[in-house]
Amino acid sequence: MPSPEMTLERQSSQAIGARLGEVHRRIGAAAKEIGRNAAGVSLIAVSKSQPHSLVRVACEAGHAKFGENRVQEAKTKWVNLREEFPDTVLHLIGPLQTNKCRDAIALFDVIHTVDRGKLAQTLSTEMEKQGLRPEVFIQVNTGEEAQKAGILPSDADGFIKECQTLYDLHVVGLMCIPPQNEHPALHFGLLSDMAERNGLSRLSMGMSADFETAVRLGATEVRVGTAIFGPRG
């Protein structure tokens, strides 16, 4: 008879596999509504604060793109997993301090949260030292919330050009986190217009509660945690 631990692990594996399938189905349905190819939407499984065992289950289910908020937590979690699953693509989706840039560049393939000149300069310097050039998104504070990271919309155009020309960062797109008390479509639309104006083709927007809306408005990366792993304890 299987032990309680093995039974729980099997149940978790089945649940995460089913949730991944359901999120992909919903992405496909939302894309179909507006005539998009769902293959143009990358699902980033937000593994921040999730136990190693559940993240492993998602890897074993064949998922390869994961998002983490904190550099140190990601280092601890992925040091062995990445050797075991070498096709993994790691996205930093949380705020980045300049003193963590060296580790961030060494660990992450994509950084979603570039939002100020000092950070851009430090990233540029560290990338040159390490010979690495991860893709970056500029985070825009579309709701102009004082407590939230991100460049203000009024400063975004100039900052994007500065990152591209002065700091030579590989800017691929824009990222936002809409205010909780406002309809996300307004913010997704603003981000989409801003990206188009600056010749950027990728949009990191949409989470568990609103990723379908984001897909309808052009998201190329959606960051989904709870809908895959369940509520964090």
How would you describe the overall organization of this protein?
By secondary structure, the protein is of the alpha/beta class. It is 48% helix and 15% strand. The protein has 9 helices and 8 strands. An 8-stranded parallel beta sheet has the order 7-6-5-4-3-2-1-8. The model is unreliable at 1-8 (pLDDT under 50).
Q: What class do helices, strands and sheet pairing give?
A: alpha/beta
**Uncertain runs:** 1-8
Strand content: 15-25%
Major sheet: size, sense and barrel closure?
Answer: 8 strands, parallel
Mean pLDDT: 94
Helix count, per DSSP? 9
Helical percentage:
40-55%
Q: What's the β-strand tally?
A: 8
Q: Outline, from the CA principal axes?
A: globular
Compressed to H and E, one letter per element, the order equals HEHEHEHEHEHEHEHEH
Strands side by side in the biggest sheet: 7-6-5-4-3-2-1-8
Return Rg in Å.
18 Å
How many angstroms does the end-to-end distance come to? Answer: 28 Å
